Amino acid sequence: MNLLDNVAIELPSWAFGNSGTRFKVFGTPGTPRTVEEKIADAATVHRFTGMAPTVALHIPWDRVDDYTALAAYAADHGVALGTINSNTFQDDDYKFGSLTHVDETVRKKAIDHHLACIEIMNQTGSQDLKIWLADGTNYPGQGDIRGRQDRLAESLAAIYQHIGEGQRMVLEYKFFEPAMYMTDVPDWGTSYAQVSALGDRAKVCLDTGHHAPGTNIEFIVAQLLRLGKLGSFDFNSRFYADDDLIVGAADPFQLFRIMFEVIRGGGLGKDSDLALMLDQCHNVEAKIPGQIRSVLNVAEMTARAQLVDADALTAAQEAGDVLGANEIFMDAFYTDVRPAMAQWRADRGLPENPMRAFAESGYQDTVVAERVGGTQSSWGA
After folding, report:
1. Alpha helices for the chain (secondary structure H)
2. 140 cis-preceded (ω within 30 degrees of 0)
3. Is residue 338 classed as helix, strand or coil in its secondary structure?
4. 113 touches 104 (CB < 8 A)
5. What is the rounded distance in angstroms from the CA atom of residue 129 to the CA atom of residue 118?
6. Is the distance from CB of 175 to CB of 202 less than 8 angstroms?
7. DSSP string, 132-198
8. At a CB cut-off of 8 Å and minimum separation 6, what does 172 contact?
């Protein structure tokens, strides 16, 4: 079985809006002004790759009056609405925390926001509520570390009890930024401890850019799959911090190693509920081809990882053949799978070269001409 047939990569609506650094957000012609235009761009990525059937929303950035109508709009464009991402990091009330805040009124506001997100999930048919928290402290002594963990557990439990049978809560972690001294969910162990206390429908979200330099991310992948607690990925690349660059750009070999463990752990099996998603910001490059390239990078490394001769690798490992085992692994990584992938796409009626096909389609010229006036989508909108 070709596991590429099981690869579905969710696209983030915010990747199609303007983004940048702390210093500058750059605008570009043709940037979506509404969530509908974001969905149309995401649907275009799916049309050229065949691997991006869902679009994640960010609330309140993608707030609309009628989510049922928005889901119908997405369906008309050949995609579905996916993960609902909450936002408890932009209101002034959250300066000193949201779900961990010492003030019960602020915690209730944050909890209520997540309950509103669950109601949106009910209307859109979305499976996952993703929670990422900016909560933390900048200085030693600023906050009670243990007390914050207790309040986090209580807040998550209050949200989790509203998660439906067909829904999940996934808790993302990040070791720093914007909190510089102590982040309330800094690592996979903290996320795992918190979701394990909640139930089977609470899992960990692993963002590949949210780790310290040198972290063995594939070990985390293997462990969480082994424990049945890896719910979803946020794919991107980092060189220094949380760069949110195109996945596979910084270290293609790392992406290969991650996808090998995903396959090894059954993450691409027919019965797997592991969700693959991009979480990127295209600051200087064109957004739609940036997302197409990202999807292709994940697909290519999945195809390479699938080539690892598992039986030969196991035999070498059990024989203590260090170099033999490594050679089997590296042979798969160095295999050029691009011709086979082009044929895989052709067999399914997709462009053999999605990047070239998009460039020749004229879609970008069309949206540049049509999307004049209004306010371009950006961080916070």
Report:
1. 35-49, 67-76, 104-124, 145-160, 188-196, 217-227, 252-264, 287-306, 310-318, 322-334, 338-347, 354-361, 363-370
2. no
3. helix
4. no
5. 7
6. no
7. ----EESSTTSS-HHHHHHHHHHHHHHHHTT--TT-EEEEE--SSSS-SSEESS-SHHHHHHHHHTT
8. 130, 131, 132, 133, 185, 191, 204, 205, 206, 207, 210, 234
pTM: 0.96
Phi and psi at 39, nearest 5°, equal -65, -40
Residue 271 identity: D
Q: Return the ∠ at Cα 135 (arms to 134 and 141), rounded to 5°.
A: 135
User: Tokens at residue 131, please?
Assistant: 């929670």
CB 59 within 8 Å of CB 120: yes
DSSP 8-class letter at 13: G
Instruction: Encode the chain (381 residues) as per-residue pLDDT tens digits.
Output: 589 999 999 999 999 999 988 788 889 999 999 999 999 999 999 999 999 999 999 999 999 999 999 999 999 999 999 999 999 999 999 999 999 999 999 999 999 999 999 999 999 999 999 999 999 999 999 999 999 999 999 999 999 999 999 999 999 999 999 999 999 999 999 999 999 999 999 999 999 999 999 999 999 999 999 999 999 999 999 999 899 999 999 999 999 999 999 999 999 999 999 999 999 999 999 999 999 999 999 999 999 999 999 999 999 999 999 999 999 999 999 999 999 999 999 999 999 999 999 999 999 999 999 999 999 998 766
User: Tokens 């805040």 identify what position?
Assistant: 101
* Residues 64, 173, 303, 216, Cα dihedral to 10°: 170
